[in-house]
Amino acid sequence: MDTLTLVRFNGTETHKLAEAQAYATRNGEGDDRKIMLWFETKTDPEPLVCLPNPDELLTNPSACLLERANDGC
Description:
- There is one protein chain.
- The chain is mainly beta.
- It has one helix at residues 54-57; strands spanning 3-8, 11-27, 34-43.
- It has a 3-stranded antiparallel beta sheet, with no helix packed on it.
- The chain is elongated.
- The protein starts with a strand and ends in a 16-residue tail after the last helix.
- The relative contact order is 0.25.
- Mean pLDDT is 76; it is low at 63-73.
């Protein structure tokens, strides 16, 4: 469905896609072969679902392993 979904620490934003392109490049030989994927999108100026700017929340986001979430990460 022509949307771009961003899962952020404070929730999920949704934007309507105006244009999307994907590129893949390959380099290296043998065990050193790698593939890089590059995505470019343009969205409508107004998001479908918007979140507050993290700077305005005065928060300090951090992450930890789920197994340790109850250990006060």
